[in-house]
Amino acid sequence: MTRQGTRTLAISRRAFAAGLAATGVAMPMVARGQGKTVIRWGELLAATHPQVQMVDRISKEVKEKSSGRIDIQVFPGGQLGSGKDMMESVSSGALHFTTDGAGALGAFLPALTLVEAPYLWRDAAHLAKVSKSPIFGKMNDELVAKRGMRMLNVTYYGKRHLTTGSKAVRTPADMVGFKLRVPPVDVFQAMADAWGAKATPIAFPELYLALSQGAVDGQENPLPTIQSGKFFEVQKFLVLTEHIITPRLIIVNEAFWKGLPAADRSMMQAAFDAGAAWQDKELLGQEASLVATLKGAGMTVIEPDLALWRKPVLDTVPAKFEARWGKGSFDALKAL
């Protein structure tokens, strides 16, 4: 690791420790006193988001099935730092679990950004096939070998759409010079570039304030995230671009996971599978009603011609990242 990399990791660990101190808990080494295992799971999203509710359900099920022997403690809302901080902490073993997007996890294994590529997946069922694909299995093996993390489940996070503050956007031509908040992921930035927008990476916990102060003109996220983040309070237009179907991944420290008894791993994996199935269904259900909900909250809904948004992205983005993703990998997943 370079000196800069070492310094970055040290900063991440300090940020993580500061987050723990703010919550009043000690550094999360596994506690197995008197036969009890305490596990800590950090989440970036608000406690009201189905992703965090999924983890709460998992925690409850695991506690019940282990007769209280395994206690998963959940820290939502970025209490333990940024998404990157928490992934660094899972990699180092300072934190046991987190969830994050494939694009964000690409900071640790760049090839993973493929799984969150724009205009790749047709729907949630198509996305669900990714975890069974040889391409994904190979990436998971590489993540374990290089960073000591394993992806246990691929969950559905929703179709991403644009929101704007004061400008009605209908085509990519309306995006020229538009300051679009995107996650700090280069594939998202390349997508924004293809539309002519000015990609502006901002950490998710800072996004509401950035929108309210006009630091950016708009953002893009799935409908449940727009709702739980209350972005409708600071954004006037909802543009249904459906540009990315986002997966989120349950990530665990590999050494910790392998150190658990096989029976506990099996029981916990069953709880993860059940929790992920619940969340996928919940998010799909919310998406079916949230357009009307957000419209009722005062947003103006725009249904654009999706072909106009898709073409400039597909003409440029897959070719730009082909060396990273592997020749033909985008097309292979698209054809699943």
Topology:
Elements: H1 3-23, E1 37-42, H2 50-65, E2 70-75, H3 83-92, E3 97-101, H4 102-105, H5 124-128, H6 134-147, E4 149-164, E5 179-182, H7 186-195, E6 198-201, H8 207-212, E7 218-222, H9 223-228, E8 237-253, H10 254-259, H11 262-296, E9 300-302, H12 306-320, H13 322-325, H14 329-334
Could you characterize what this model shows?
With 336 residues, the protein is an alpha/beta fold. The chain has a single domain (3-334), classed as D-Maltodextrin-Binding Protein, domain 2 (3-Layer(aba) Sandwich), CATH 3.40.190.170. The protein contains 14 helices and 9 strands. Helix 7 (186-195) links the parallel strand 5 and strand 6 (198-201). Helix 1 packs across helix 3 (83-92) and helix 2 packs antiparallel against helix 11. The longest helix is centred in the last third of the chain and has 35 residues, at 262-296. The chain is globular and about 60 Å long. Mean pLDDT is 91; it is low at 1-18 and 20-29.
Give a short overview:
This protein is of the alpha/beta class and 336 residues long.
